[in-house]
Amino acid sequence: MLFVTCIAFECGDLCAQTNAWQPSPGHRQMPIWPGAVPDAQPVAGPEFARTHKEFIASKPVVLVERVSQPTMTVYWPKGTNTGVAVVVFPGGGYNCLAIDLEGTEICDWLTSRGITAVLLKYRVPTLRFEGYRESRQALEDAQRTLGLVRFHAAEWHIDPHKIGVLGFSAGGHMVTATSTRFDRRLYPAVDAADEESCRPDFAVALYPGHLWKRGGKLELNPNVPVTSNTPPTFILQAENDPVDPVENSLVYFMALKNAGVPVEMHLYAQGGHGFGLRSTKQPITEWPRLVEKWLGAIGMTLESSPANRIRQKAP
Questions:
Q1: What is the pLDDT of residues 173-189, one digit of tens each?
Q2: Fewer Cβ neighbours under 10 Å: the N or C end of the chain?
C-alpha cells in the first residue's frame, strides 16, 4: 500500500539512497524552465532518488525527493502514433515522487498504445502559498509543461487538441488543478510556449487526494473550481483507500456532473492505495483497459478518425 506523503517511507535501513534520478537509456531529461524557476523555495539538500524495500506487486518503489529543478522526459510511442499525448504526474503527497510506480511504468504502457508520454518531475517538497493551499510550484510546473507540449506538437507529431493529463494521489489532485485552473498561469510568461493553452483536452485522476474538504460534509476543495469548460475526466479509486478516502473522488465526480462535464468514474470495493498499474489479485489493477476504452469513447484514439492515423516516426 503506498502513501499520500513520504512519511511512510523513512529511509534509515529501509532504502538505498542514490544521486538525482535519471531516466533509462534512450530517454533524455529536459529542463522545463529556460532560466530561474518561478517562486523558488529552499530545499534541505540536493535532489536524490532512493529505492524503498517495501515491495508492491513483487517490485520495490523508487522515490525522488528534494526536486528543485523540474524536468520533463518524453517517451515516444511504439508502433503507430495515435497523435495523442499524455503528461504524467507521479504521486507522493507533494513531498516526493513515486517515479517508477506512478511514472516510468505508466509511460511504458502509454507508449505501447501509440501514445506520446511526457513524464513531469515536478518540484517537491514546496511551501504552501496563501491563496493556493496545495503546491503552487508543482502547478506552475504542470502549466508550463502543458504549454511546452502544445508548443512542440507539430515537431513531436502530436495532435495539439489531444493532449491530456494523468496522475495518481497528489498527482491525481494536480490532474484536477490543471483541469480547473488553466485560465491564468500562476507565473509570468517567459517565452512563446506560455502563449499556448495549458488546458488539458482530457484528464485521468487515479485515487486522487486533496479534493474533499474533510469534516463530515461532501464539499469540494475550492482550489479546484470546476466549470463547464473542465475537460472530460476519468476517475478511479478503491472504496477502502486508507490514504485518500473515496470522498475525494465522489465530490469531484458530483462537481463535474453538476457542471455538465463528461465524466466516467469507477469505484472498487477493494484495492487500497498506491498500486500504480502493477498487476495484483485485486480487480482494480485492470484499470488500464478501462482507460483505453474510455479514450476511444471520447474520440481520442478511435482508429476510424483520420487525425489518429499519424504514422510518422518519432523525432
A1: 999 999 999 999 999 99
A2: C
Please state, in angstroms and rounded to a whole number, the distance separating the CA atoms of residues 213 and 223: 10
**pLDDT (tens digit per residue) in 133-160:** 578 999 999 999 999 999 999 999 999 9
- For residue 47, the SS3 value is coil
Identify the pLDDT of residue 302. Answer: 63
For the chain, the residue count is 315
**What type of residue is 304?**
S
Q: Are strands 59-65 and 48-56 parallel, antiparallel or unpaired?
A: antiparallel
The grid coordinates listed for 121 are 518531475
Predicted TM-score (pTM) of this structure: 0.89
Distance CA 312, CA 315 (A): 9
Burial string for 96-118 (b: 16+ CB within 10 Å, else e) reads bbbbbbbbbbbbebbbebbbbbb
**pLDDT classification of 197: cutoffs 50, 70, 90:** very high
Strand-strand pairing, 233-238 and 202-206 = parallel
Instruction: Give the three-class secondary structure for 287.
Output: helix
Q: Supply φ then ψ for residue 48, to 5 degrees.
A: -150, 155
Q: Read off the pLDDT band of 127 (50, 70, 90).
A: low
Is the distance from CB of 49 to CB of 268 less than 8 angstroms? Answer: no
At residue 62's C-alpha, the angle toward residues 97 and 5, to 5°, is 40
Q: How far is CA 199 from CA 135, 193, 227, in A?
A: 18, 13, 13
CB count, 10 Å around CB of 136? 22
Q: Please check whether residue 94 is in contact with residue 139, taking contact to mean a CB–CB distance below 8 angstroms.
A: no
